Amino acid sequence: MDNPVLVEVTRGPLVESRHRGAVSVVDADGGVLMSLGDVDLPVFPRSAVKALQILPMVHSGAAERLGLTDAEIALAVSSHFGEPAHVATARAMLEKARCDVGCLECGAHWPMDPAAARALAAAGGTPSALHNNCSGKHAGFLCLACDLGEDPKGYVRADHRVQGIVRASLEDLTGASHTPDVQAVDGCSIPTYAVPLPSLAYGFAKFGTGVGLSPDCKRAAARIRRAAAAHPFMVAGTGHFDTVLMEALAERAFVKTGAEGVYCAALPGSGLGIALKCDDGASRAAQAVLAALILRFLELDGPERATVEALARPRLTNWNGIEVGEIRTTDALVTPL
Hints:
The protein is α+β, with helices and mostly antiparallel strands. The chain has a single domain (about 5-335), classed as Beta-lactamase. About 40% of the residues lie in helices and about 20% in strands. It contains 13 helices and ten strands. It has helices at about 50-60, 60-65, 70-75, 85-95, 115-120, 135-150, 160-175, 195-210, 215-230, 230-235, 240-250, 285-295, 300-310; strands spanning about 5-10, 15-25, 30-35, 185, 190-195, 255, 260-265, 270-280, 315, 325-330. The strands form two sheets. Strands 1, 2, 3, 6, 7, 8, 9 and 10 form an eight-stranded antiparallel β-sheet that branches. The longest helix is centred in the middle third of the chain and has 16 residues, at about 215-230. The model has no long low-confidence stretch (mean pLDDT about 95).
């Protein structure tokens, strides 16, 4: 089946491009509130599920025993921009686990924040694994491995105990089997599993409400949400959609980008989980869809609404600052429930 057009990008009075996709909104009892497109087609959530992947590190007590701060826990669920505060926080996490940058197996890349990348280059520096947008999550994996008394080497492999625990957490939350036939390798080298959008949305509804979780796991999920709300900069970085949205909504929404047009979110007060995928992998389209869904499913006050509306319908400008068009969601997202 062809997925519906969810987003249009205009230039002047005309539509220049269209983005198709699928959306699933589910409550913590598994009830479906919205289903658009081929939601049963498995997708790789990748970074969108970092909070679910890091839940065992908090749930096990490792975070408390190692004295991890809320800023460090927020970084553990992040796709950060490699800004100085991100790098320093990742290094601090490693020190608490008695590890160093050489223990990270995520690979190195230049900071995703242009200013941070320019500053590093101007200083004659080169990027390390600390600048990798996944270094916080990997530092969290090392914290779990060391707390368990496991050899951290090879913690990215599917057969390592850490990844076995992470896989079990994902299966428990989503209800979907994470088996070798849907397994691939993520950009940061850990296993990633393709699952249907309703399973992802269900997992985030449970993560946001604690429904169906053990008391300890429920408390761990709440701590992760509080940490992200208190330190949204750590979850992404300067000006990023995730940071801006969570700065505005605090604990009312936990949102996380994935890759290739995937987004997931938990709306704790509404008891809902959201998962979506834009077919062509366009992040800016996925962001507009998520913002539109939050406008639909959350009661927002004036300042909150203004922020989310701007994210749902961003204006496009050229290099001279002239407005040339906009990104807008379609009527497919306002169909009756």
